[in-house]
Design goal:
Elements: E1 2-10, E2 16-25, E3 30-34, H1 41-47, E4 56-61, E5 64-65, H2 74-77, E6 81-85, H3 96-105, H4 111-124, H5 140-152, E7 158-162, H6 170-185, E8 189-193, H7 197-202, E9 206-211, E10 214-219
Parallel strand pairs: 3-8, 3-9, 6-7, 7-8
Antiparallel strand pairs: 1-2, 1-4, 4-5, 9-10
Length: 227
């Protein structure tokens, strides 16, 4: 579960990106976060994995209050949360298998468990045959599938996706969305920031719209429109 209680975020330059946010996202939900550029959407997303800390208020993810979490505990928090970025953030000198395995190596999984989990997740995202290829040998869609595989290989309860189809062509974007749908049907909570109007209007889920640091709309089965 994700809970925000009276959350404010003010940056040193005076910009207020969160202006008293209150929201509850239940386990297993799929939530789109929409809004214009500069609305506070990225801050909303980043506070869920403690890339940003609130100025005041509580952000609770999986029972952990991120507002009071010590910096040294952040890596342990992120073992419970999968994060998928628009620009993939793959390690260029590691191949597909190694990029995904790295997420398990840092938490000292056994070699046998790493092999099993990595092979399973590469099968899920359709990259079994590309396991030994390097990021520069992949298409953008394939790189994003590696990023998704890395984010879910540790079976997190929550996956946060920040514009995951932003750099992809329409056909590839639909392929990526099918993977997210599969992940969600397994019980994983997904929170996805997106500007993709067609995806939001076609694959219906809860829509949270943010503007001026405020939640202006929270609608189940909603469509993409701002305001």
């Amino acid at each position: 579960m994700i809970v925000m209680k009276n959350v404010y975020k003010k940056y040193p330059n005076g910009v207020v990106a969160a202006n008293g946010l209150n929201v509850v996202i239940d386990p297993g939900e799929f939530v789109y976060v929409v809004g214009p550029s500069g609305a506070g959407k990225s801050t909303f997303i980043k506070m869920m994995y403690r890339e940003e800390a609130p100025t005041s208020g509580d952000v609770i993810v999986n029972g952990i209050n991120l507002a009071t979490l010590r910096n040294k505990r952040i890596p342990y928090l992120r073992r419970q949360i999968g994060v998928v970025f628009q620009d993939f953030k793959l390690l260029p000198k590691l191949n597909v298998y190694e990029n995904v395995a790295f997420a398990l190596e840092v938490i000292e999984e056994s070699p046998a468990e790493i092999r099993k989990k990595v092979n399973d997740v590469l099968g899920l995202v359709g990259l079994t045959q590309k396991a030994r290829m390097f990021p520069n040998e992949l298409s953008g869609g394939e790189e994003q599938r590696v990023s998704i595989a890395r984010s879910i290989v540790n079976l997190p309860k929550v996956v946060i996706a920040d514009e995951p189809t932003g750099n992809l062509d329409p056909e590839t974007s639909w392929e990526i969305m099918r993977i997210f749908e599969q992940i969600n049907t397994r019980g994983t909570t997904i929170v996805m920031a997106t500007h993709n109007r067609e995806i939001v209007n076609t694959i219906k889920h809860r829509v949270i719209a943010i503007e001026g640091g405020l939640i202006t709309r929270d609608e189940y089965g909603g469509e993409y429109y701002e305001g």
